[in-house]
Each structure stands twice: as C-alpha cells, then as structure tokens.
Specification:
Strands 1-2-3-8-7 form a five-stranded antiparallel beta sheet. Strands 4-5-6 form a three-stranded antiparallel beta sheet, with no helix packed on it. The protein has one domain: Immunoglobulin-like (Sandwich). It has about 160 residues and is an alpha+beta fold. The two termini are about 30 Å apart. A hairpin with a 3-residue loop joins strand 4 and strand 5. Helices cover about 10% and strands about 30% of the residues. May regulate the LIS1/dynein pathway by stabilizing LIS1 with Hsp90 chaperone. Interacts with LIS1. Its main location: nucleus. It is found in: Chromosome, Centromere, Kinetochore; Cytoplasm, Cytoskeleton, Microtubule organizing center, Centrosome; Cytoplasm, Cytoskeleton, Spindle pole.
Length: about 160
C-alpha cells in the first residue's frame, strides 16, 4: 500500500477526539474543531517549547507535554472561519529521523500504520529537499526508511 502523500501538499493526519495533527520535516500542525461562532477572545492558547495548553470558552481542550521540543517564538495559532483553531509549531530538530510518534508524550499517538506513513512522508520530503528539481510525483518509499532513510550525503556527486 502506498503512502497517501502528494509531492507538494500531502499530509498524513492523525485523528483525535478534538480534530487532528500532522507534521512535516520542520513543523507540527494541530487542527482543533471548535463550536461554530467561536471568537478569538474565547480562546486561551499557551505555546511553550515542550508544553501546550488550549482552552475554549473556559473548557480545556488540549494540555500537556509535547512529544519533542519546539521553538517557542515561532509557534502560532489562528482561528479560521470561527470554527477551526490551527496551531503551527516549529520543530527544534528538523531532520527526517525526527518523526513524532505522538503529539504529546503520553497522548494522541499515531497508530502503527499512520506512524509508518508519516515516516515515509518525511523521508520523501527529505529526499525532495536534498534533490531540488527532481520530480518526485508518483514516487514511493519502500525498504529501510525509518529514522529518515539511508544517508547518501557522503557519496560523491
């Protein structure tokens, strides 16, 4: 089975009771469904290097220690169409081997199949970055791609 990944915009989401989260080599995205008509002043969001807290209208939605560290000053949240909160966290460790297996240390883990697809996507994203101009559309990753796949950086070009 091939990964549900489109070269430029594909994501491998991990569903949660409140929405979903997904990742790229550099960022972690969190999408939280909120009651229609929610206003920014109803939202309290705290983004720290290893901790996140989100409440809407006084009700805690998400709180805990993040799976890995992020760059605090680059984390953002937006309220879209008054019904979706999108949080973007910038990973501190940005290599393909840093595939988060869960959003928080002890919650919202990706099931094994989704985790496998996430790792494939990050490996393909790494290859794409290392080989600009190469057409990866239709590419499939197989074999040993865990921890970012094989390292070809020492080979002569």
């Amino acid at each position: 089975m091939s990964a549900p990944f489109e070269e430029r915009s594909g994501v491998v989401p991990c569903g949660t009771p409140w929405g979903r989260w997904y990742q790229t080599l550099e960022e972690v995205f969190i999408e939280v469904q909120v009651p229609p008509g929610t206003r920014a002043k109803d939202v309290r969001c705290s983004l720290q290097s290893r901790h996140i807290a989100l409440s809407v209208r006084g009700r805690e939605v998400l709180q805990g220690k993040l799976f890995d560290s992020t760059i605090t000053d680059e984390g953002t949240w937006t309220l879209e169409d008054r019904k979706l909160i999108r949080i973007v966290l910038m990973k501190t460790n940005r290599d393909a081997g840093n595939c988060w297996t869960s959003l928080l240390e002890d919650e919202y883990a990706a099931d094994p199949w989704v985790q496998d697809q996430m790792q494939r996507k990050l490996t393909l994203e790494r290859f794409q970055r290392e080989n600009p101009g190469f057409d990866f559309s239709g590419a499939e990753i197989s074999g040993n791609y865990s921890k970012g796949g094989p390292d070809f950086s020492s080979l002569e070009k």
